[in-house]
Amino acid sequence: GENVEQHPSTLSVQEGDSAVIKCTYSDSASNYFPWYKQELGKRPQLIIDIRSNVGEKKDQRIAVTLNKTAKHFSLHITETQPEDSAVYFCAAPARTGGFKTIFGAGTRLFVKA
Amino acid sequence: EPEVTQTPSHQVTQMGQEVILRCVPISNHLYFYWYRQILGQKVEFLVSFYNNEISEKSEIFDDQFSVERPDGSNFTLKIRSTKLEDSAMYFCASRDSGNYEQYFGPGTRLTVT
């Protein structure tokens, strides 16, 4: 079945450093890869997404890279700030279930001031 | 910007009681979803709904669960006889037919005592 693996589960960085979170997916037909940020008690919030026809996408301090051959995509956050502290989920839509979203297990990011 | 809304924000119920969680998807969206997130865990797919019927349901979505779109705006999740392990955050999501992006509601925190 469809599967999305995410690591690390926890990541602690110093303010100003970069953070990288990596995910792999199993369905080679997947062609849309969103990243969500979730603060405690809140909904998952889409922060960036990438489609399979591009290899990289940037939005200010966040970027996502995609390697379709390896079925691997990553989130990069540069110049981290304390407000970046949250849980980050990668995801991919499944071909069934109306493109239901399959989430990774999440990465808890701590940015130390 | 249109948003998915959910009510109530928090529901406390006793084991064995029935609960109905309500969602109002974005008005022109055609695909509807329920997801569940147990505290500290990842977001899990429960059920997808399109054209007035279930597209797919997960193993979690057993006979105690049902969904309904009783009118043109609401989308409900009913749990017939709640168990302690049903305690979780329940997110509704919707999307239109032209995009993969799903829009999540703010969630309903269900506490079963």
Q: Unreliable stretches of chain B, pLDDT < 50, 5 or more residues?
A: none
Number of strands of chain A: 11
- Look at the structure and give the mean pLDDT of chain B: 95
Average residue pLDDT of chain A: 93
Q: Count of helices of chain A?
A: 0
Concise account of the structure shown:
With 113 residues, chain A is an all-beta fold. Helix content of chain A is 0%, strand content 56%. In chain A, β4 and β5 form a beta hairpin.
Notes on the structure:
The complex is a heterodimer of chains A (113) and B (113). Chain A is an all-beta fold. In chain A, strand 4 and strand 5 form a beta hairpin. In chain A, strands 2, 4, 5, 9, 10 and 11 form a six-stranded mixed beta sheet that branches. Chain A has no helices and eleven strands. In chain B, strands 2, 4, 5, 6, 9, 10 and 11 form a seven-stranded mixed beta sheet that branches. A four-stranded antiparallel beta sheet of chain B has the order 1-3-8-7, with no helix packed on it. With 113 residues, chain B is mainly β. Classes of the chains: A mainly beta (113), B mainly beta (113). Chains A and B meet through strand 5 and strand 10 of A and strand 4, strand 5 and strand 9 of B.
Secondary structure: elements and pairs:
The complex is a heterodimer of chains A (113) and B (113).
Chain A (H helix, E strand, L loop, with lengths): L3 E4 L2 E5 L4 E7 L6 E7 L6 E7 L4 E4 L2 E6 L4 E6 L8 E8 L7 E3 L3 E6 L1
Parallel strand pairs in A: 2-11
Antiparallel strand pairs in A: 1-3, 3-8, 4-5, 4-9, 6-7, 7-8, 9-10, 9-11
Chain B lengths: L4 E3 L2 E4 L5 E6 L6 E7 L6 E7 L2 E5 L7 E4 L6 E5 L8 E8 L7 E2 L3 E5 L1
